[in-house]
Amino acid sequence: MHEKASPERLRQHVDKIAGAFVPRDYTHRDNLRLTTEYVHDHFTETEAFAVSYQPFYAESSTYKNVTALLGSETEPRVVVGAHYDAAGPYPAADDNASGVAGLLELASLLADNPPDGAVEFVAYCLEEPPFFFSKQMGSYVHAAALREEGIDVSAMISLEMIGYFSDEPDSQRFPLFFLKPFYPSEGNFIAVVGRLFDRRLVRTVRDAMRDGSSLPVESLNAPSVLPGVAFSDHLSYWRNRYPALMITDTAMFRNPHYHGPGDRPETLDYGRMAMVVDGVVAAVRALAEH
User: Fold this and answer.
1) pTM for the structure as a whole
2) Smallest Cα–Cα separation from 102: which of 260, 244, 284?
3) What are the angstrom distances between the C-alpha of 67 and each of 2, 124, 157, 271?
4) pLDDT, tens digit only, all 290 positions of the chain
5) 81, 66, 80: which is closest to 32 by C-alpha?
């Protein structure tokens, strides 16, 4: 039984996704298919999950989400998701092989000791441009299907870049200057980000993550128009009237390799990544067992 997230397992997942399956932009469908098969294979390692592909169409091509449900189909569920596609022909280790690796490790840990409530794990395709903000995002397809089926989602968590950390002074930047006095200047924390009226959800996740790991956890509730607040798959759930938030290393506000060739596996901090996953385990339990 896995009691804590493993930095080595996380490294292996990132090495595979950001090494063997490159590039993963929307034009390289073979590598996207190999990524879905990799995720599917790991989900099916345990009989606890109901695993399936969710195919959908975009620009006359077929893409797939991969879903794994732990628990009953009929009870309210927590959704945890991460996109596996990349922006451009780059390794995209932090954005977002790190999120997918965290998703796989999280699923493994919770399968070993399931929470009382239902949890659905989803790997999405087509988060990146030119599909971002569109109904062709894999996460929008998933959220809209849940809404059409009348599924009650108590919360959705988007794992969006969870692997880049820095202890250097002023390594953390901010979308607006007035935020700087309220947060560390070092990029050594993980952030929980949600809308203004999701304060209770953000607080619940932040506090549970702090209890589940010694990694510093900061939070932000802000209007979705603030740069970065809506920049991931949680947006799709907002658009389908579900409560949702993002867990992130703050992406372009910290990682100098964002959307570039330097976003490679060796730039990530797998020890702190594991601490993020441990925190998310605690958060999912807090939400699913509420």
Assistant:
1) 0.97
2) 284
3) 21, 9, 14, 27
4) 558 999 999 999 999 999 999 999 999 999 999 999 999 999 999 889 999 999 999 989 999 999 999 999 999 999 999 999 999 999 999 999 999 999 999 999 999 899 999 999 999 999 999 999 999 999 999 999 999 999 999 999 999 999 999 999 999 999 999 899 999 999 999 999 999 999 999 999 999 999 999 999 999 999 999 999 999 999 999 999 999 999 999 999 999 999 999 999 999 999 999 999 999 999 999 999 87
5) 66
CB atoms within 10 A of CB 241: 9
Give me the residue label for tokens 């509420």. Answer: 290
Taking phi first (over 0 means left), then psi (-120 to 50 degrees means alpha), and beta for anything else, what does residue 213 get?
Answer: beta
Burial class (CB in 10 A: 0-12, 13-18, 19+), 148: exposed
- Per the listing, tokens 């309220």 go with 182
DSSP result, 28-84: -HHHHHHHHHHHHHHHTTSTTEEEEEEEEEETTEEEEEEEEEES-SSS-EEEEEEE-
- The one-letter amino acid at 269: D
